[in-house]
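Regression test attached.
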Amino acid sequence: MTERLVHHGGVDPDPSLPAVVLLHGAGMDHTVWRGLSRHLANHGRQVLAPDLPGHGRSGGPPLGTIDEMACWVRALLDERGIKTTTIIGHSLGGLVALRVAAGSGGLIDNLIMIGSGAQLEVHPELQQAADVGDRKAVELILSWSFGADGRVGGRTDPGTSSLVTCRRVLENGIGVLGQDLRACSEYLAGEENAGQIDAPCLVVSGSEDRMVRPAKSARLAGILKNARYELVLGGGHMLMVQQPDRVRRLVDGVLPPRQVLGFRADV
Amino acid sequence: MVEPDLPGFETLAVHAGVKPDPATGAATVPVYYSAGFVFEDTDQAAALFNLERPGHIYSRISNPTVAAFEERIAALEGGVGAVATASGQAALVLAITTLMGSGSHIVSSSALYGGTANLFRHTLPRFGISVTFVPPDQPDGYKSAITDETRLVFAEIIGNPVMDVLDVEAVSTVAHDHGLPLLVDSTLASPYLCRPFEFGADLVIHSATKFLSGHGTVIGGVLVDSGQFDWAASGRFATLTDPYLPYSGVVFTDEFGPAAFIARARAEGLRDFGACMSPETAFFLIMGVESLAARMDRHVANTRRVVEFLASAPEVAWVRYPGLEDHPHYELANRLFPRGAGSVLAFAVKGGREAGERLIESVELVSHLANLGDARSLIIHPASTTHRQLDAAGLAAAGIDEGLVRLSVGLEDPVDIIADLARALRNSQSV
């Protein structure tokens, strides 16, 4: 097990470039940012998409609270000498991003939260299943994450099943899922933290998201001082996996693409 | 109590991978006859070529109609993704070339389709890939054949044509204990009768020509990735864990996570070897898959009637079908195939090869041709046809005796199938 995996979108990180941190959700890992991380890295950004401790290919015990995860992210930024960064978080990762951004002065220049809110309740039966490593927890998350469109597919990424791909990522993270979900439901300072953020924010949710209802995301956007809210019709909770082009365009709206790096790929 | 509410198999068989066409509202997938796809702009073109954005570039690598078939099969097998190929053999070769190169080694069951046996015995060795054959039903045999150079364990879910059943759980455990994936040819089962990933298999191939098509219309194959195998932890698969220069040094396991294998199979295997599926073939296959569940139920029901008849026919020396209680793998078959053990069986008529030939020449409703999994009932004598390239030792190793006849039971009225076989059996005994 790698001690700590930080994915850079396939491009060696250049400290002179503006940084973007991508934070995955409960029980998941950096691969949910596939495509977006590579896009940002190839368009003039220094990308840091870590596997949180105990997730994906990062070792170590999982962190039990959103505060601890936020400290871990800040330590990563300090270690890399990053003074300003955009931070993008999905679900639990959104809470971590919110916590990092709160009262951080100029550290965060943009905050983007996908499928997240100020406070995330967890269904008790989901929590119970996740606590004992029951795969029913994975199936419940998938059921509540994929709307009518996502369940049958018709995906833009040729020949792949986004639902099964998410299932595999969650199965790999089943050992930490219960603790992650508890960290979400026990984080109660979201609204207070949101009020401390001056940076421009984009809050995105999918209209079919039953893990974090759109109303919850919209409410967060209302609390943030400088936020825009985007509802993606037909999208579910795993928005960046289900509708990667839509999410990329939204992110590009906040972070205009910089120069395209040279690469070689012949067909 | 809350319960997951994801779509079931039959629903996925009809809907997975396809949405109504946004331009026309067409409910079935359009056949996209287009070699290439217009880029939005230079940045999108560059992004597609750099694996940043999803989408289609050129139909050798992906095509919307073919992608719909691939996604449907991935959903039905429970895999993260699939790549459709020109044939089932192309799917097998794609899997092998994605995982290994010269100097590598495969451990394979000896109960194989003749084409696969030739590939393994004669063709792959020319490219520096060696294969050790082991008895299909002895997990310890697989274990003792594994070397430091082994990169794959391979077997057919039901050995064609000898009807051995693969103990997927036991063999996958052996493979995983050695950091190796198990690739299963699941053609004879179809995902309706068995989903090998649920028993530990890591990769699955189908000759889509067979039950997925169901009508004997097209040649096609598909390779499916479970996404369950940990390529990085194994340490044996540089193609997936080392930087790949043709795509700016992408590391597939880092970039694609559980879909690393299938991403590389498409990005490299279709690009370089080019054994892609045509969109027209994909359309035929999608139509076939929509009725897969209903067809397989009828195939199995008809087969049970035919097997019952053959088992009691005085002209028949023996019948081998995993759904028969006297089959050595009957219990295993019940575990793997609770809905039935398929519709292919082997039998021999009394009187040896000559009697077998008279039987085949006497059938009228049943077709004598080299295929299976068709709506039509099909019969063939493997030793003189599909496995003709095997010498006596090869036939013996594959468990094929000279009198063996393979029957693929179709969807006709079983009374008519049985009547045809009964008459042909009587003729087989006339001298």
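Expected vs. actual: identical. The mean pLDDT of chain B is 95.
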